[in-house]
Amino acid sequence: MSTPAVEVVDLQKRYGERTALHGVSFAVERGEVFALLGPNGAGKSTTIEILEGYRRRSGGTASVLGADPGTAGLDWRARLGIVLQSASEPGTARVREQLAHFAAFYPDPRDVDEVLEAVGLTAAARLRVSALSGGQRRRLDVALGVVGRPELLFLDEPTTGFDPEARRRFWQLIRTLRDEGTTILLTTHYLDEAAALGDRAAVIAGGRLLDIGPIDAIGPAEARTPVVRWTDADGRHELRSETPAVVVADLVARTGGEPAGVEIVRPSLEDVYLSMIEAVEADA
Q1: Domains of the chain (ranges plus CATH)?
Q2: Distance between CA 63 and CA 181 in Å, rounded?
Q3: Would you call 91 helix, strand, or coil by DSSP?
Q4: In what order do the strands lie in the sheet with 227-232?
Q5: Residue 67 gets which letter from DSSP?
Q6: Rounded to two decimals, what is the model's pTM?
Q7: What pLDDT is attached to residue 87?
Q8: How many CA atoms lie within 13 A of 171 on its CB side?
């Protein structure tokens, strides 16, 4: 079996007396989309910056594409694509010129016009970067990160500022990259995005890893259990059950008809994630 694209063991980061990461460990397999989730200040950006080689760790080990990101050189960096939370590009160049300029640095770049279409910038291709709106600049950041066909792509809040149509086009681009074998490490506050794109996810809060696994297995079993809700003469009721259809069938049999307001709610990734974070905050 091939070695993971990313592997961290007991990753630690301290800033003076404050500890930002408390021994985080996880691996990202080659060719998968891995979502790193957590609230602001959880340690996501610190983790990503260590893996990108921009920040030194205080302890633990890290391997990215077979190299230590703290000492790897330019050849290693050329194999990465990075979309930061915010970036600034020279304002004098036109959008297509800027993207074509970046594409020329790579041996096998994606088609420039294809990338512009994928991020929703075709109509703005001839505009100067300085004339772009905030959302359009964000789309250009994404375009610059993916144009070189990186082996490993870091996406830090990539669709901030995207309209719904642009988000869907971007999702399709990510699926295409994954199908081509690109490994993708994604951080996002849009839990529907993580659910739509991710193969696996890890949840971090307070610098600690809370859980890791397939998207549909994240969180405690109780938080993922479907909920049946209905109303009768005694009021509104709610029952968690792994077999919600059986519960509804039993209600129908007992009442002689469909109960009022009956509904089956299957917790989404966002529901499970919020329950995990609320539990951590309550303990704190």
Answers
A1: 6-79+150-217 (3.40.50.300), 89-146 (no CATH), 221-283 (no CATH)
A2: 19
A3: coil
A4: 235-240, 227-232, 260-265
A5: B
A6: 0.84
A7: 61
A8: 16
